[in-house]
């Protein structure tokens, strides 16, 4: 992502003229956990099937190291997206921030024993 910040008339003056504009071009580097889209941040978090069904308490570390609560008290569906207002990137020349979008991946077991299948059917069936 490229952003350009311009400071008007803060550059060196042209020969026998007015000062020019000072321009900074800011490039955003990729991050391992977060993806930036405008001023919003996006990330993916993997939870277990049990956590998806009964809820969970979880925190993720933000870019500035503060912790953000992303837990849930209810059922979380695979690919569900949770929006956390004001946890995105700061808006230029403003005290507001974008939002954080967390997409949940649900980790399913590779196999179940017959006993586990029976218990699941008793509870859910």
UniProtKB/TrEMBL annotation:
Pfam families per the UniProt record, alphabetical: DnaJ_C
| Domain Chaperone DnaJ C-terminal as annotated: residue spans | 3-109
Domain of life the protein comes from? Eukaryota
InterPro entries hit by this protein: DnaJ_C (IPR002939), DNJA1/2-like (IPR044713), HSP40/DnaJ_pept-bd (IPR008971)
The record ties this protein, via SUPFAM superfamilies, to: HSP40/DnaJ peptide-binding domain
One of the entry's Gene Ontology molecular-function terms is: unfolded protein binding
The alphabetized list of GO BP terms reads: protein folding
Indicate what this protein is called per its UniProt record. Answer: Chaperone DnaJ C-terminal domain-containing protein
Q: Source taxonomy lineage?
A: Eukaryota, Viridiplantae, Streptophyta, Embryophyta, Tracheophyta
